[in-house]
Design goal:
Keywords: Membrane, Transmembrane, Transmembrane helix. By secondary structure, the chain is α+β, with helices and mostly antiparallel strands. The protein is built from two helices and five strands.
């Protein structure tokens, strides 16, 4: 079929048609609203979440301080690389107070070895803040997850609304058939 014409018409649900029902127009607007919500709402949720996450990571970098600590005991040697063991460490906070606590350190280290720890404003041990690159990657991932979640909610709500419309249409067709059906059936007796 070369040179055949395409019969699909754009925006057919909005065009005047004697077979068009009110539910068809409602469904057309619903689909348009859902896609607009996915595009705009998903983008907005992603941007806001990424910005908030980046703000939190920036605040963590500002509040946390690196300090040098001394191991108070040897850590056991591990058979596998990257193994970490709990060890007691001592450090001096920026205000001059001496602290002792337990933390995870690389295995196979000797007592008296120096390590770098991170502390918060009160001098308590805390995880290292993410670097700018790590923070940007994590903020991007969180933003993408929020955008997908918002799009999923909009898509699910649109699907539920279309399901309700389909139930209404099926009920309407049943009522119409109850009125028209007896006219079509004829008895042979």
């Amino acid at each position: 079929m070369r040179g055949g014409r395409r019969t699909k018409r754009w925006l057919w649900r909005w065009r005047s048609n004697p077979l068009r029902r009110r539910d068809d127009v409602l469904e057309a607007w619903l689909v348009l609203a859902v896609w607009a919500l996915i595009a705009v709402g998903g983008t907005f949720a992603g941007v806001v979440t990424a910005g908030a996450a980046d703000g939190v990571f920036t605040q963590q970098r500002a509040e946390r301080t690196s300090v040098r600590a001394v191991l108070l005991a040897d850590t056991p040697q591990a058979a596998a690389r990257g193994y970490r063991a709990k060890a007691e460490v001592r450090w001096t906070a920026p205000d001059g107070s001496v602290h002792t606590d337990e933390t995870l350190v690389a295995s196979g280290q000797k007592a008296g070895g120096k390590i770098v720890l991170w502390t918060d404003e009160q001098g308590a041990l805390t995880p290292a803040p993410p670097s700018r690159t790590e923070a940007a990657a994590q903020a991007g991932l969180l933003g993408a997850a929020a955008a997908l979640a918002a799009a999923g909610v909009a898509f699910g709500a649109g699907g539920a609304a279309r399901w309700v419309l389909d139930r209404h249409r099926i009920g309407q067709w049943g009522r119409e058939w109850d009125l028209i059906g007896p006219r079509w059936s004829h008895k042979t007796t």
